[in-house]
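Checklist before submission:
- one chain only
- standard amino acids only
- sequence pasted in full

Submission:
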Amino acid sequence: MESIRNNALTFIGNFVMAYFIFGEGTIGKPLIFAFWMLMLMMGMDWYKRRGSHTLN
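Returned file contents:
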């Protein structure tokens, strides 16, 4: 549950910062940017967790 909260807060932060960076007044590009950053973060988390499991 903690990772869901962290991912949601990071998604919102990425969206807000991208909204100010792109500065077009539309939400399309910031939303896409925040979505791809979320996918990147989730993929990196999955890749790190994948190697940490053992059968012990």
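Reviewer check: The mean pLDDT is 87.
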